[in-house]
Structures are given as C-alpha cells and as structure tokens.
Design goal:
The protein has 112 residues and is mainly alpha-helical. 51% of the residues lie in helices and 12% in strands. A hairpin with a 5-residue loop joins strand 1 and strand 2.
Length: 112
C-alpha cells in the first residue's frame, strides 16, 4: 500500500513520531552517502560528458527506518523507475521530474 508523503507525515504525527527528526536523519544519511561516492561519480561523469554542467542524475534511495528512527540504506537506484502505475505514482513522479528540471534550469515551454 502506497502513501503520499503528506499522508505518511500526518500518520506519524498521530502516532507520536517526530517526523521532523526522522526526515533530518534521512537527509543526513543521503548526503553522507552521496559524499562517499562523489569522487567516483564525478570522475566517471567527466569521462562521459564533453562539457561540464550539462548532465544530471536522479537517484532513488530505499531507506528502512527502525523503531529508534534510525535510517538504514537498503539500496540506491542509479536509474529509478519513472513508470507511474497509479494516480499517486503519477503525482509523485511528475512532481519529482518537474523539480529536477527546475533545479537544472529547464523552463516549462509556453503553451502554443
């Protein structure tokens, strides 16, 4: 059963979980993971891309949270699926792609 992030946060609040602390720990783990692999990713990207700054990657982090709110990385997907099997998938993945495109400076085309 899939939940939206807002539904998950609401549920966590209702059961007394400090969702802010949980998300802070998850972000800390993600940042540390990316720092650990940046030299390898950077070197391979420089070999594969002729011009710097014209490439980006979306990673998918699968994280397990234990009963002490400690996050554990299960895996990092280098090419997470963008297939949307439900309206919730469509909403989440289209928002993710929109945010990624905005971060790299791509503008939405004006309607014709």
């Amino acid at each position: 059963h899939k939940w939206s992030l807002s539904a998950l946060n609401k549920h966590l609040k209702c059961v007394g979980v400090d969702a802010g602390l949980m998300w802070t720990r998850i972000m800390d783990l993600v940042v540390k993971t990316l720092f650990a692999v940046e030299p390898t990713i950077g070197a391979r990207t420089r070999k594969a891309v002729a011009h710097s700054g014209v490439c980006f990657e979306v990673y998918g982090f699968d994280v397990l949270i234990d009963d002490h709110l400690k996050p554990w990385i299960l895996e990092v997907n280098l090419s997470p699926s963008m297939r949307a099997d439900s309206p919730l998938d469509w909403q989440g993945k289209s928002s993710l792609l929109s945010d990624a495109f905005n971060l790299v400076g791509l503008a939405r085309p004006s309607p014709a």
